[in-house]
Amino acid sequence: MATHEPAALLRERGLRVTAQRLALLRAVAAHPHATADRIGDACRAELGTMSKPSVYDGLTLLVERGLVRRIQPARSPARYESRVGDNHHHVVCRSCGRMEDVGCAVGARPCLEASDDHGFVIDEAEVLYWGLCRDCRAT
Amino acid sequence: MATHEPAALLRERGLRVTAQRLALLRAVAAHPHATADRIGDACRAELGTMSKPSVYDGLTLLVERGLVRRIQPARSPARYESRVGDNHHHVVCRSCGRMEDVGCAVGARPCLEASDDHGFVIDEAEVLYWGLCRDCRAT
DNA sequence: CACCAAACGTTGACTCAGTCCAAACTAGCC
DNA sequence: GGCTAGTTTGGACTGAGTCAACGTTTGGTG
What we know:
The structure is a homodimer of 139-residue chains. Chain A is α+β, with helices and mostly antiparallel strands and 139 residues long. Helices cover 35% and strands 21% of the residues of chain A. Chain A has helices spanning 6-12, 19-30, 36-47, 52-64, 134-138; strands at residues 34-35, 69-71, 79-81, 89-93, 99-102, 121-132. In chain A, strands 1-3-2 form a three-stranded antiparallel β-sheet. In chain A, strands 5-4-6 form a three-stranded mixed β-sheet. The model of chain A has no long low-confidence stretch (mean pLDDT 86). Chain A binds chain B through residues 70-75, 78, 89, 91, 93, 100, 102-106, 110-134, 137, and chain B through 70-75, 78, 89, 91, 93, 100, 102-106, 110-134, 137. Strand 6 (121-132) of chain A pairs antiparallel with strand 6 of chain B, so a sheet runs across the interface. Chain A binds a DNA duplex (30 and 30 nucleotides) through residues 16, 18, 20, 35-37, 49-54, 56-57, 75, 77-78.
């Protein structure tokens, strides 16, 4: 389904459609929860060459425009994913760093209401579940 | 109240009581949500000298032993706080990075149940509310 | 088509948090 | 006093991410 194919998404956000950006979007979609480094590698495999700043700048731009989401768990470089807009969260393995998507148990917009917001206007609740994955528990 | 004064807490965890560790605990308590760097400064102000590795090693040890909690919001160095055990979360300002404590609206152990845990055994749910603080909204 | 400004992309140097390592020191214990 | 394990130190190092300056492409306009 091409209802929201990449090029259209970029244009909708006032961004030029470039080979790099398309490659970034494709790489993020193909490698969910990958680091900027790995995404850069994937783009380079496709395009031949892509500089480090281009990878970071491009990802930052896509994050700002809401096409990509950045997750930064403790003790790990930032990771990226293309599932945006729905309200899912992540489990992270304390041992190996593996990350998986999870829906939240508490309805559609869980935890979005803080009990005391200290005058903040909150636009996102980020939930990370920490634990051990099956493989790491086995060892 | 000295029901849980620092030296006793350290000994309970099988840790030697050293001037550095006491200073770390005091610094974390006195500067909630401070970075390792600021905590190091506070300790140095108290002790005269304390090396960078000592600050990091000490903090890591205290985190492992459950005396201090580490929070690592995206695009920010790790922060530390001494409120552990209770189930509170944090609001972070996207603009200035300010961080405040909040209780969660959804009962005592909110969101600790993921809808599908992918075989993970979860021991902690970390919730970050992102938004803009009053000061940054004013500008 | 020719020109121009704005947007893109590149290289290379740089910053900054955090870690590693080997050596020196200290405290408790025989 | 001498042992031994735990602590602390300085300094070098790593790795993620950013900056700045310079060249290149793109699309709009006359």
